[in-house]
Design goal:
Blueprint: H1 2-33, E1 48-51, E2 56-59, E3 69-77, H2 84-101, E4 107-113, H3 120-131, E5 136-140, H4 147-156, E6 160-166, H5 177-188, H6 196-200, E7 205-209, H7 214-220, H8 223-239, E8 251-255, H9 256-264, H10 273-283, E9 288-292, H11 305-324
Parallel strand pairs: 3-4, 3-6, 4-5, 7-9
Antiparallel strand pairs: 1-2, 6-8, 7-8
């Protein structure tokens, strides 16, 4: 019996040594072959937006430019011709009402078509034609980048003192933007309507959260999907982000400075990009406020339960490994 136990322990120990050896070898290869700083891929045609009336192409501004409006909303959209109109209608109605109350308030919505193969671009351009390019712009990506890559390029093209990214499905109640803005004002101590120039240079992030809806969601999901969800949350806590209950809600508000820093350092283009953004923010001690928002399940999700969760888990492992061994590094110009 003792010999069997000794043999079992010996096999386990040797397997552990082999695993450590292979992890070290993989880490060395990754370190030597990885560019430590994020490289943003952008084709020349993606640097311009169209003016429907004149067919002219005008170059997008840069996130490095000073703010010129109060708020930019980035809407990543991949084959969203059916769900996009309702989200835009709700958002524009809220923002137009606000503009009537505050005549100096200016906003823009940048719809980023992430290599869509349906009529997403046509839908976006119909809103551009109706409301004008000062308020609505369409960034058409030549090839699919993933949600993170689409949001990243939208942020790079924005003008706002505050920058919100919001999902095209309209699952989050857009009016809850006020909750995120209130949380940001608490952190930066400036008025979003009166002091946009001061706010843009501050560093703070307010993120929408569905954590308060978790009990209701658990009852509706299958056991398998709940296991996947808990596994993902555990990996997020173990490897990357601490103290955030919901990293994946597609309703996040950044000051311009925070967006510039975080998105310029973003390596992950797919579903786990939210986690890397928050990881970068925490590493740079950028304050993050998590705010409960209203959320409704909308049919037509692009997330496939098994494959997307496997991809997210893989990305989480890479985020942890590459930052741990120094293969990925963070550039910071944070001043506040």
């Amino acid at each position: 019996m003792m010999e069997m136990l000794y043999l079992f322990c010996s096999i386990i120990f040797q397997a552990l040594l082999v695993g450590i050896f292979f992890l070290m070898m993989i880490s060395v290869v990754i370190y030597l072959t990885t560019n430590p700083y994020a490289a943003i891929e952008r084709f020349q045609d993606e640097e311009f937006y169209k003016v429907p009336q004149t067919k002219a192409k005008i170059k997008f501004p840069s996130i490095d430019d000073p703010q010129s409006i109060n708020l930019s909303i980035i809407v990543p959209a991949y084959n969203e011709e059916e769900r996009l109109p309702a989200m835009l209608d709700e958002s524009i109605q809220f923002l137009e009402n606000r503009s009537r109350l505050y005549p100096t308030y200016k906003y823009e919505i940048i719809i980023v078509s992430d290599g869509s193969k349906d009529k997403t671009v046509n839908v976006a351009e119909s809103y551009v034609e109706k409301f004008g390019t000062e308020k609505i712009r369409c960034l058409e990506l030549i090839k699919n980048r993933g949600k993170g890559g689409a949001v990243q390029l939208g942020v790079q093209s924005s003008r706002g003192s505050l920058i919100l990214f919001a999902d095209a499905d309209g699952a989050s109640k857009f009016e809850d933007l006020k909750k995120l803005e209130g949380a940001l004002e608490e952190m930066v101590k400036y008025d979003i309507f009166k002091e946009p120039s001061e706010i843009e240079n501050c560093c703070a992030i307010a993120i929408g959260s569905r954590a308060h809806l978790e009990k209701e969601s658990l009852a509706k999901r299958s056991i398998f999907r709940n296991i996947l969800m808990f596994g993902f949350h555990f990996l997020v806590w173990l490897f990357t982000v601490k103290g955030i209950k919901d990293t994946q809600c597609g309703f996040k508000l950044f000051t311009r400075s925070s967006a510039r820093i975080c998105f310029k350092n973003l390596h992950v283009n797919r579903w786990a990009f939210d986690v890397e953004l928050l990881y970068i923010a925490q590493k740079l001690n950028i304050p993050i406020s998590e705010i409960p928002v209203r959320w409704t399940e909308i049919d037509g999700s692009k997330v496939t339960p098994v494959l997307s969760w496997i991809q997210m888990g893989w990305d989480l492992g890479l985020i942890w490994l590459k930052y741990t061994i120094g293969a990925w590094k963070i550039k910071s110009d944070k001043t506040n």
